[in-house]
Design brief:
- By secondary structure, this protein is α/β, with parallel strands linked by helices.
- It has helices spanning 18-29, 47-50, 71-84, 94-97, 100-105, 128-137, 149-159, 204-217, 235-245, 261-265, 282-289, 302-305, 320-332, 334-351, 354-369, and strands at residues 5-11, 35-41, 59-62, 88-92, 110-115, 143-146, 166-168, 190-195, 225-230, 252-256, 270-273, 294-297, 312-315.
- Strands 3-2-1-4-5-6-7 form a 7-stranded parallel sheet.
- Helix 8 packs across helix 13 (320-332) and helix 11 crosses helix 14 (334-351).
- The radius of gyration is 21 Å and the shape is globular.
């Protein structure tokens, strides 16, 4: 039996997040007799989150990167490459791309880079230095994996990556874990919610503003609709102060980080993603798999996942009134919630299944390892 293919996965931090969830699904789902996995974090990792990896004896290393430029990271990464000798080096997002140069110098046979979303300092991909860096270090990469058509177009047209290097692979969602609630009572309090790290790019403050605006416009809904924010981060305090100032804190729940996202989804009636920028959102796919209608800002890969008027609604980023009105439509119409949620589930089963994603990555890895 041939030796397993060793993949070194490199990311900035291994903790709760969409990129990290996708990576866990990939590691857990690939054939364990064919692949061995090593995780490398530029900064650090969350030991509790690591427990989601089901592969026994997973190897993980933290390079303990300091803020800004830290030459020690290069030396530590070089030693790891020479010790582990991976068959595939798979870096993710801009912060890790430069390490592909070390992969070249270390003679790593297969070099893959994934673009999962936009950097908070470059929300629309327009910054010239980011494009130039991607083009420069892109010479060391054999396959770029874009998680959305939007990112694929950016790499091809704006960065100048060759078409034969590009592969577009959507995230996949576990349709056995993420399922709809057994029953949703149309007469019960409607729960509008979101899941995600509470940071600037996710823009949960927009959702709080829209919720406050809805209750101001429709006082009859006070007590009949609640907002649930699942996740934690720097924006939590801003959001808490915003709803408190409007005296709506009794109808807003800050649930914090949760390892039980599938169960949390089943407690929602409407899912909202108010991001400023997105690649391909795992939480949108998980919400669709949970038969929830999705309201999302029309940015990045959101427009590829949400079929406006059929599985959910797209609104302009930053438009409080439009988001508030979209929430109101779903709160008022149980049949609309059910119809859009059912169509979203159908889309996940046909286009965004986990087996489909795993097969695509397997093809890339085996092709390079060969």
């Amino acid at each position: 039996m041939p030796s397993p293919i060793t993949i070194m996965h490199v990311l900035f931090r291994f903790s709760i997040g969409g990129l990290e969830n996708g990576m866990v699904n990939l590691i857990n789902g690939l054939d364990r007799s064919r692949y061995r996995h090593v995780i490398v974090c530029l900064a650090d990792y969350n030991a509790a989150f690591l427990e989601r990896v089901e592969v026994p004896d997973i190897e993980i290393h933290a390079l303990d990167k300091r803020p800004g430029q830290d030459p020690r990271v290069w030396w530590r990464m070089w030693r790891l490459l020479r010790t582990v000798r991976p068959d595939i080096l798979h870096t993710r997002n801009f912060s890790t791309l430069e390490l592909q140069l070390l992969g070249c110098l270390a003679g790593v046979h297969g070099r893959v880079h994934g673009e999962h979303g936009w950097d908070v300092q470059d929300l629309d991909g327009s910054r010239r230095k980011y494009r130039l860096a991607r083009r420069l270090f892109g010479h060391c990469v054999q396959r770029f994996i874009a998680l959305s058509r939007d990112l694929e177009r950016y790499l091809l047209r704006d960065v100048g990556i060759r078409a034969d290097k590009l592969v577009q692979i959507y995230n996949g969602v576990d349709t056995e874990r993420f399922v709809s609630a057994v029953a949703r009572n149309p007469a019960a309090t409607i729960v509008v919610g979101t899941v995600g790290r509470m940071k600037a790019v996710k823009n949960q403050t927009l959702l709080c503003q829209a919720f406050v605006a809805l209750l101001e416009r429709r006082p009859d809904l006070v007590g009949g609709v609640r907002l649930k924010l699942i996740g934690d981060g720097p924006l939590r305090q801003d959001c808490a102060e915003l709803v408190a100032a409007a005296q709506r804190q009794d109808w807003v729940e800050f649930a914090g980080d949760s390892a039980q996202v599938a169960e949390q989804m089943r407690g929602l009636d409407v899912f909202v993603l108010p991001s400023l920028a997105e690649g391909i959102s795992n939480t949108i796919l998980e919400a669709m798999a949970s038969s929830l209608p999705v309201i999302a800002t029309a940015v990045g890969g959101n427009v590829e996942l949400v079929v406006d008027g059929e599985s959910g609604s797209l609104v302009a980023s930053g438009d409080v009134a439009a988001l508030s009105a979209a929430i109101e439509r779903y709160v008022d119409d149980a049949e609309l919630r059910a119809r859009h949620g059912a169509y979203g589930r159908q889309l996940v089963e046909t286009r965004y299944s986990l087996p489909r994603m795993l097969a695509s990555y397997d093809e890339v890895y085996r092709g390079l390892a060969a």
